[in-house]
């Protein structure tokens, strides 16, 4: 639970931290699109290089970024195991038993899918590591401004998303605290079958729900005490402006997406030309 990175902010002064939050949101969308468009390890390698450069320029420790994958490690391993055992392809089976078949194509496809999942998690974590909840709210609200023409509550939606992200690490810490308290009272969460373990979670869920409702009520009272009225007659303390840094990152995002698309269309031809030149 301590490795949950969503909603956590790493306070440091860096090139990535100074970027406009709107640009970071758009770049994240472009990066995710590039991950899904990629159909080869060459394309994913390009995405990995961009991610490594982003981590380096953000001055966030690489270990901290990699630890964000621990929260979805079960999903990654489960996905890899299912694809290894059931993805057959056209190659000869390396191992076969009952309904399970392991092929070379299945192993390659599983590795490719695992890399894709890891990239998705780490790039999303980088957004929260380098952007404060307030800046993230302002960025979402600014990007969704056209929806105000149809009377869509853009400010309320952005505020809800920001509060939800902010409360994730808080609720994780609260869950850990309640779990330790129940263990001190003799609760057992490790032994027994799956039914017993599910029942053992009940003493955690009820106090956690009560704590979440209490925190939400306290937050509402605090906002009322400060005369919060939504986006009516509100002004911005910090106005969002694009700088030369944002232009560089925007061009980099366009180049990344264009490169992945070109590798998807002409990847085999480009690889043949490269091998011909090298050999």
Describe what this molecule looks like in 3D.
This protein is mainly alpha-helical and 279 residues long. It has two domains: 1-131 and 242-279, no CATH class; 153-234, no CATH class. The protein contains nine helices and two strands; from the N terminus they run ααααββααααα. Helix 1 runs parallel beside helix 9 (244-278) and helix 2 packs antiparallel against helix 9 (244-278). It has helices at residues 21-37, 41-58, 62-67, 73-86, 104-130, 133-143, 154-184, 194-225, 244-278; strands at 93-97, 100-103. A two-stranded antiparallel sheet has the order 1-2.
Highlighted features:
279 residues, mainly alpha, 2 domains, two-stranded antiparallel ribbon, 9 helices, 3% strand, disordered C terminus
């Amino acid at each position: 639970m301590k490795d949950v990175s969503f909603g956590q902010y790493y306070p440091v002064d860096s090139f990535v931290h100074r970027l406009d939050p709107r640009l970071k949101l758009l770049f994240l969308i472009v990066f995710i699109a590039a991950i899904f468009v990629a159909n080869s390890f060459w394309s994913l390698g390009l995405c990995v290089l961009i991610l490594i450069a982003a981590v380096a320029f953000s001055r966030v420790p690489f270990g901290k970024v990699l630890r964000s994958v621990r929260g979805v490690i079960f999903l990654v391993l489960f996905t890899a195991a299912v694809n290894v055992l059931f993805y057959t392809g056209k190659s000869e089976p390396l191992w076969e038993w009952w309904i399970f078949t392991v092929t070379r194509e299945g192993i390659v496809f599983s590795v490719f899918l695992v890399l894709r999942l890891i990239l998705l998690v780490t790039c999303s974590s980088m957004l929260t590591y380098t952007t404060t909840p307030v800046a993230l709210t302002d960025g979402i609200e600014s990007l969704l401004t056209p929806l105000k023409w149809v009377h869509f509550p853009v400010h309320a939606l952005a505020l809800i998303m920001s509060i939800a992200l902010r409360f994730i690490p808080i609720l994780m810490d609260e869950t850990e605290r309640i779990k330790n308290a129940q263990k001190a009272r003799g609760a057992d969460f490790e032994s027994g079958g799956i039914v017993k373990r599910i029942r053992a979670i009940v003493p955690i869920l009820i106090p956690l729900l009560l704590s979440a409702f209490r925190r939400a009520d306290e937050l509402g009272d605090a906002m009322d005490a400060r005369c919060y009225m939504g986006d009516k007659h509100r002004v911005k303390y910090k106005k969002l402006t694009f700088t030369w840094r944002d232009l560089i990152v925007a061009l980099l995002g366009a180049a990344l997406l264009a490169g992945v698309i070109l590798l998807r269309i002409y990847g085999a031809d480009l690889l043949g030309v490269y091998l011909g030149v090298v050999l």
